[in-house]
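Memo to structure team: turn this sequence into structure tokens by end of day. - J.P.
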Amino acid sequence: MNLSLRVKVPKDGRNSPYLLIGKLKVNRLADNDGVYGGELRLPRDIAFRFRITTDTGVQEAGRNGKEAPFRILKLPGDAAIDYEVERWSE
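Reply from structure team:
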């Protein structure tokens, strides 16, 4: 299965070369500041829960700065997904 993925993150000075979505490594796009993404090939019917994490282990947080709930990725077939990180935990 093919997954087209884009993740927009806040421009807060963090300059991670990649993000982790579960165990999936998602690289920063060279031409877009604060945007990560790419084309991934995954097993069909994959499903897992995750928080978006920087390369240094900082996890996404909700608007209030507290731990964000887990996201769930469940894909029966090819998909294009956009995520947005509101802020990072401290």
